[in-house]
Design goal:
about 240 residues, alpha/beta, Rossmann fold, 8-stranded mixed sheet, two-stranded antiparallel sheet, 6 helices, about 25% strand, globular
Length: about 240
Amino acid sequence: MATRKIEYIEGDSVFEGHMAWDDSLAGPRPAVLVSHAWGGRDDFSCQRAEDLAALGYVGFALDVYGKGIRGDTVEENQALMTPMLEDRTLLRRRLAAALACIRKQPEVDVGRVAAIGYCFGGLCVLDMARAGADLRGVVSFHGLLSPPDGMPNRTVSSKILVLHGHDDPMVPPDQVLAFEKEMTAAGADWQLHAYGHTQHSFTNPEANNPDLGAAYQPDAARRSWASMEAFLAEVLA
């Protein structure tokens, strides 16, 4: 396993991603972006990049907020995420910069790139698909599903996998139904797996916040990762 930190720029801001790959494999290989939750690029997202590298991909934990910018509390995380939700155009520019960065790396097969994301990061990768980013597929783990306001309707060419906790209070059933209708209208190849008795942040062993409806669910975490593996094997073949 090899890793390196990579700086990239969007506008006046500097960002730092964490790239991981199996250096025993020869030649370029598919890449998978990992979009972090609301607290910024953290150990969790970097570990997921390394887990993807163990599967034979180049994993790249991207950075939405800026180099070294992280939140440690609910209030700090909310303060970081809210401006991105209020300016989805800026968010898409930052995500596009991360995609351009990983496509420049010599270890990457530029024709085979996908993205996964967690919570806020799930919204991020879905927005990339909505915007027509050159991605084979995207996977949202307990992600926010609401589309940006004012984005013109367009065909979604990236394949879509949404992994959702049925009891997630941040994404109630009416929003799930609206998302399904949105993706169908966009002509997307989409699927949604809902896990019963499962709340928000179900993949994160440190999630334990009843006030937010966030709790680790090990069965859903295991099943969702297996679903992601099968999806990536298909879309990145």
